[in-house]
Amino acid sequence: MKAPNHQWTEVQNSLRAEFGDAAFKSWLAPLNFENIDENTVILSSPTKFLKDWIQRQYMDRLRFFWNEVNPEVRVVELVIKDYDTMPPVTLSNNNEITPSSQPEKSSDTSKNIEPLIESFDVNLDPRFTFDNFVVGRPNELAFSAAKRIAEDETVRFNPLFLYGGVGLGKTHLMHAIAWAIREKTPERKVIYLSAEAFMFQFIRAIRHKSMMDFKEQFRSVDVLMIDDVQFICGKDSTQEEFFHTFNALVDQNRQIIISADKSPSDLEGLEERLRSRLGWGLVADIHPTNYELRLGILQAKAEQKNVDLPLNVLEFLAHRITSNVRELEGALTRVIAHATLVGRAITMETTQEVLRDLLRANDRRVTVEDIQKVVAQHFNVKISDMHSARRSRSIARPRQIAMYLCKQLTARSLPDIGRSFGGRDHTTVMHAVKKVQELMASDQNVTEDVEILQRSLGG
Ligand code: ADP
Ligand code: MG
């Protein structure tokens, strides 16, 4: 059996390999190994916040990896060290840097107090450039806006708010902006980070009483990009600081770019001031891909990888893998990897064989169109009534139920759903969802209808 310290090192290596350098640095590196007591490992975390976070996000894997290097270990426990000396969470006017009041640290923990800037280490994916981004109807607005910001030093819309479902290219576009600016105007200071990392920096700044540095670093940038802001929704103090940073940068006419999985109006748990401020600039949504775009992306990727794929295979993939670009890429990679391994040409048969599980999962996904069809049949109304302006109850009710089911069974946003129902507003959809929920609570018939429909849609 290896010494406990070495076990910890191995576990750390496995964690880094699994979650990547950035996540490791932000979340896992601050943990310290304390002790092993029979089957229990004790690790310490500098803050309660971090402890809770690790508990939720990483505990399973942590336990798994320990158990791999030391089969006796069954439990990993987290304790908070130095929690008592943590300063109270005051956000404003706490700009003083007071290094003398730092609690005494062993040399082991002091390495965690690195200058903040290091952890902004940009971490840009070299593949995520404008050249590698395939443009089509669903993403052309987002693409042009991103391009414009990268090329034009004048701030024309602030912020640029990019939103869309997972795997549709938000991160890709943000990295592309950063690359383009670096190349064209390297003197402009760009910071890209995930909202998660922003939050972590913020919490750490409070912890180490370095709010001044924290603010300074953000406020001296020309372009600030925060990815996946849905992450800070509901985290009040982080939102607050983000809001101040945001305002300070906008006042100085610096460019801000935000991404999220929903539009500002659909983000839940977002403070009203921040929501309206986020909507001030240009809000560009990336729609789900269409067939042409998927085919274009497949062709571009196959070309990049220098493989010749039969057109019918590409068409087949574009037809069948409709979820998002990440899965589409994954499918292509798998097909190519398989062909390389077994040394045979790629055909329709091998493609279907290799992707069987993925194809099945894509088939199971319910679309808005499916829902409209099934609901119309069930209530014996026309599918066109789902889009029509008719408001009689016999039609409005099924339409509301269909909207409700779209909200429950698909990942589409409220505005998106509204658009699919004859261009209705997202507030109409919101109202429909609420209405159906009320009816289900009071009317057994409605509950049954919804349940039958859900079952026939496989939900
Ligand atoms: P998001 O941040 O919206 O979840 P990503 O930007 O991470 O999505 O994109 C997922 C993957 O799909 C990445 O590998 C990205 O390069 C690729 N991708 C997405 N959209 C496009 C596109 N239009 N052209 C080429 N690749 C794309
Ligand atoms: Mg992303």
Keywords:
459 residues; alpha/beta; GMP Synthetase, Chain A, domain 3; Rossmann fold; three-stranded mixed sheet; 21 helices; 8 strands; 54% helix; globular; binds adenosine-5'-diphosphate; binds magnesium ion
Question: Can I get a quick summary?
Answer:
By secondary structure, the chain is an alpha/beta fold. It has helices spanning 4-28, 48-57, 59-69, 107-110, 116-119, 140-151, 170-184, 195-207, 211-219, 236-251, 272-278, 291-304, 311-320, 325-342, 348-354, 356-364, 368-379, 393-409, 414-420, 426-442, 444-456, and strands at 32-37, 40-45, 75-80, 160-163, 190-194, 223-227, 255-260, 282-285.
SSE topology:
Layout: H1 4-28, E1 32-37, E2 40-45, H2 48-57, H3 59-69, E3 75-80, H4 107-110, H5 116-119, H6 140-151, E4 160-163, H7 170-184, E5 190-194, H8 195-207, H9 211-219, E6 223-227, H10 236-251, E7 255-260, H11 272-278, E8 282-285, H12 291-304, H13 311-320, H14 325-342, H15 348-354, H16 356-364, H17 368-379, H18 393-409, H19 414-420, H20 426-442, H21 444-456
Parallel strand pairs: 2-3, 4-7, 4-8, 5-6, 6-7
Antiparallel strand pairs: 1-2
The structure holds adenosine-5'-diphosphate and magnesium ion.
